[in-house]
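dumping this here before i forget
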Amino acid sequence: MSKLIITAAICGAEVTKEHNPAVPYTVEEIAEESRRCFEAGASVIHLHVREDDGTPTQSAERFKACIDAIKARCPELIIQPSTGGAVGMSNEERLGPVSLIPEMATLDCGTCNFGGDDIFVNTENTIIAFAARMNDLGIKPEIECFDKGMIDMALRLHKKGHIKAPMHFNLVMGVNGGISAEPRDLVFMRGSLPQDATFTVSGIGKAQFPMAALSIIMGGHVRVGFEDNVYVSKGVLAKSNAELVEKAARLARELGREIASPGEAREILGL
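structure:
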């Protein structure tokens, strides 16, 4: 079994300081959270960026400022910008950070009802266009799947040549409008992936660490962080993203998985 890649999703686009005062907004806060996560065992930073007041943005300029500040502290880290952005953003707006040619970026493979009137739209043509831009720039996509049908979409587009193998998936479990976060669900999702694929699991809210533990046992990788969950245990707010990374690393060691360094993560992911 390969070493475990821990991804830290440090701020997302929707969670705010009202949910947890430690959610980072500024360039300095994002860079410091990334440094602490690296020291705790993370090798990948899944990156959304904010304006100083917390407003989500896909500005390439803001992404560059944050990436430069992170790299100044931890040059080894893999930085994975999100092309999901926030609900309501245009496709071109969402693609802003790929102009910086990161090693990886996210590729959402389906539309999801996030709650109320919030619909996260990803048409087949959107997915194809995003994949083409990443292919042209040599960026490896992390295929974001909130349900089984999104895996099927990715596999169809792979057969048509739009998504290259070996593929790396992020299985998002427990988000509103997507698949639930029960052991049977992860077994089902994992069994739908190609044999040569790698996968990360992102449990939402209280599902974060149960899903992390299952992924560790099943040979997958894990994502933790404030984007998905702001608590370190029931009713106890995490002091930082690093506290969540530390808990994931502790789980891995108890279950017999070593933690991958950024260099080892690059080898596992084929970067």
